[in-house]
């Protein structure tokens, strides 16, 4: 009787070992596939805000993505102020990207404040830069 019991335990041990080996063999390729797939890019938005200094100009980014322009406006003239800056003032960049900015004034205006901060390292959440253009004639609203 004892001999049969040992054989039963031995058979149970062998079956368990084979089942475990089969399970490991079927999971290993799935894990290898998962690890070899590229990670999804994580992006965040970056906005260029141009303050209302009454001058005109453009803020651009490197790498490309931001190309935001505001038109000069005379507050004592008869025209209504421009509604919003034109162009691409918000763009998505991969988190960790360092973005630098250039502010270029339109004829008749100057850059009163270069983009601040500059450069910007993209992080999760809200990222921005700020710039101000003023008219050359000296009339400049400080924002």
Structure in words:
This protein has 143 residues and is of the alpha+beta class. The protein has one helix at 2-36, and strands at residues 43-51, 57-62, 67-70, 86-88, 90-94, 98-105, 109-116, 120-121, 127-135. Helix content is 24%, strand content 38%. The N and C termini lie far apart (97 Å). Keywords: Signal. This is Secreted protein. Residues 1-32 form the signal peptide.
SSE string: HEEEEEEEEE
- Secondary structure class reads alpha+beta
User: How many H/I helical runs?
Assistant: 1
Please provide the count of β strands.
Answer: 9
Mean pLDDT: 80
Euclidean distance between termini CA atoms:
97 Å
Name the helicity range.
10-25%
Which blocks of ≥5 consecutive residues have pLDDT under 50?
Answer: none
Overall geometric form: elongated
In order across it, which strands form the biggest sheet?
4-3-2-6-8
Report the C-alpha radius of gyration, rounded. 32 Å
Strand content: 35-45%
**Main sheet overview:** 5 strands, antiparallel
Signal peptide: 1-32
Organism: Streptomyces albireticuli
Protein name: Secreted protein
Keywords: Signal
């Amino acid at each position: 009787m004892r001999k049969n019991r040992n054989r039963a335990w031995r058979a149970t041990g062998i079956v368990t070992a084979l089942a475990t080996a089969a399970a490991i063999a079927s999971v290993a390729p799935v894990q290898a596939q998962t690890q070899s797939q590229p990670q999804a890019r994580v992006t965040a938005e970056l906005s260029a805000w141009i303050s209302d200094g009454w001058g005109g100009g453009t803020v651009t980014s490197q790498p490309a993505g931001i190309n935001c322009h505001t038109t000069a406006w005379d507050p004592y003239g008869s025209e209504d102020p421009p509604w919003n800056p034109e162009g691409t003032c918000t763009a998505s960049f991969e988190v960790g990207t360092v973005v630098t900015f250039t502010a270029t004034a339109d004829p008749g205006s100057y850059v009163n404040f270069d983009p601040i901060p500059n450069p910007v390292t993209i992080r999760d959440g809200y990222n921005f830069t700020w710039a101000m253009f003023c008219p050359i004639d000296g009339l400049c609203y400080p924002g």
